[in-house]
Design a protein that fits this description.
single chain, 370 residues, alpha+beta, 3-stranded antiparallel β-sheet, oxidoreductase activity
C-alpha cells in the first residue's frame, strides 16, 4: 500500500512565517467570504460559519497548509458527496463523560468543534470528558481546537487519523501501512498556554508534495524507496515508497507506537476505521477535555505548568538558537499579529478561491492597504 499523490491525508500542520510582502486580509472578511462560499455550495449557514472559522483560524496561526488553501478541496468533496452537509452525527453511545459519534462524513471542522463545545460544557460536571468520532471528514488544523480550550483554563488532547491513508511504514517495514496520525494538545500555564500539534511520522504527505513542487529534497533521509532504502527524495513516497515514523531509522519505534495508539483511540474507540475500507479525507477523531479544577485545582495546575514553562524559556539556548520557545508560542504570536495587521495568505490561495467565487457570485475581500 502506498500514498496517493493529491489525495493522501495531509498530516499535521506546522506554523510558518508570513510570506514576505504578501498581501494581508481582514480575518473577519475572510471568514465571511469562506462561509458564503460554503453556503453557496449547499452547506447550512451554521455549518458554513464554523467551517470557515476553523480554516481562517489556521491561517491566523500560520498553519497555512491547513487554512483556506483547503477550501477548494472541501468544496470539491461537497459537490461529489464525499462530504455530507445535512443533519447531525449519529449518537452511538452517550454515558455523559464518554460519547461516541458516527460522523456520517459531515464536515470535520464542524464535527470537532461541536465535540469540543460539548466536552467543555460537560467537563464542569464530570471533570473529564472523552468523545470518539468515526467517519468524519477531514478536521483541518488540529491546533485550533486545544488552543480554544486552553484559553478557558482547560486541558485538551486531540488525536486524528486517516484510515484511508497508508503512507507511513511501521518501524522495520518498507511498506506504508499507517497514516501520519497527528495529535495536538493544549493546556494553560498562567501565561502563554502550551499548544502542540505534532505528527507520529517524521514528515507528512503534504510536505512531500510541497518539496516535489519546489524541486527540493528532505534535509535528511526521512523516507524509504520501494526497495526499503533510505532516501531524501520526496518522489519515492509516491513511487511505492513510504515515510518513516517519528524517530527515523534509529528510533522509529517511538513514532510507530504513537501511531498505533492514535489509531486505537480514533478508530478503535469509534468503531470505524481501516477494517471498514475507509476512504481518503475521512478521519477518525478522539478528543478529551480535562478540567484541572476537578483535580488539585487550576491554581495548583498553573503553578506547576507555569514553573516548568518558565524554566524551559530560561534555559540557555544552543548555538544558532536565539531563545527557547514553548510549543505553540510562535503560532499564537502570529495569530495576534494577524489579528492586528491582517492575515497574510500563502501564495496561490486567493487565486485558488477566485474561480469558485466567480462561479457562485461571491465577492472576495480586497487586500488591506499598506
Amino acid at each position: 500500500m502506498t500514498a496517493q499523490a493529491g489525495t493522501a491525508h495531509r498530516g499535521h500542520a506546522s506554523p510558518e512565517p508570513s510570506p514576505a510582502g504578501a498581501p494581508r486580509y481582514d480575518a473577519e472578511a475572510l471568514r465571511g467570504a469562506a462561509a458564503a462560499l460554503f453556503a453557496a455550495a449547499g452547506a447550512p449557514a451554521a455549518k458554513a460559519a464554523v467551517m470557515a472559522e476553523v480554516l481562517v483560524e489556521s491561517d491566523l496561526m500560520g498553519h497555512i497548509t491547513h487554512g483556506l488553501g483547503l477550501l477548494p478541496k472541501y468544496m470539491e468533496d461537497m459537490a461529489s458527496g464525499t462530504m455530507t452537509l445535512e443533519g447531525e452525527p449519529e449518537v452511538i453511545a452517550d454515558r455523559g463523560a464518554c460519547v461516541t459519534w458516527d460522523g456520517r462524513a459531515l464536515p470535520g471542522g464542524w464535527l470537532t468543534m461541536k465535540a469540543l463545545d460539548l466536552a467543555m460544557e460537560r467537563v464542569k460536571t464530570h471533570g473529564t470528558v472523552s468523545i470518539a468520532i468515526g467517519n468524519s471528514h477531514h478536521i483541518g488544523c488540529l491546533a485550533v481546537y486545544p488552543a480554544k480550550a486552553a484559553a478557558r483554563g482547560l486541558v485538551c488532547i486531540l488525536h486524528s487519523s486517516a484510515p484511508g491513508a497508508s503512507s507511513v511504514a511501521p518501524f522495520g517495514a518498507r511498506q506504508g501501512v499507517l497514516a501520519p496520525d497527528p495529535m495536538a494538545a493544549g493546556f494553560p500555564t498562567g501565561g502563554t498556554p502550551v499548544v502542540l500539534d505534532i505528527s507520529a511520522s517524521i514528515t507528512t504527505n503534504n510536505m512531500s508534495q510541497r518539496l516535489i513542487r519546489q524541486g527540493e529534497r528532505f534535509p535528511h533521509k526521512w523516507v524509504l524507496d520501494a526497495e526499503g532504502n533510505p532516501s531524501d527524495d520526496p518522489n519515492v513516497v509516491f513511487q511505492g515508497g513510504a515515510i518513516l515514523p517519528a524517530g527515523g531509522l534509529d528510533h522509529g519505534q517511538k513514532g510507530y507506537g504513537w501511531a498505533l495508539l492514535t489509531e486505537a483511540l480514533t478508530q478503535g474507540l469509534s468503531g470505524h476505521g481501516r477494517a471498514d475500507g475507509a476512504r481518503n479525507m475521512m478521519a477518525g477523531v478522539f478528543l478529551q477535555v480535562i478540567d484541572p479544577e476537578a483535580f488539585a485545582g487550576l491554581g495548583a495546575f498553573e503553578r506547576q505548568t507555569g514553573h516548568t514553562a518558565a524554566a524551559c524559556r530560561a534555559a540557555a539556548p544552543r548555538p544558532g538558537v536565539a531563545r527557547v520557545r514553548l510549543p505553540g508560542e510562535k503560532g499564537l504570536a502570529q495569530r495576534e499579529e494577524a489579528r492586528a495587521r491582517g492575515v497574510a495568505l500563502a501564495p496561490g490561495v486567493m487565486e485558488g478561491l477566485r474561480p469558485l467565487a466567480g462561479r457562485h457570485g461571491i465577492a472576495l475581500p480586497e487586500p488591506l492597504p499598506g
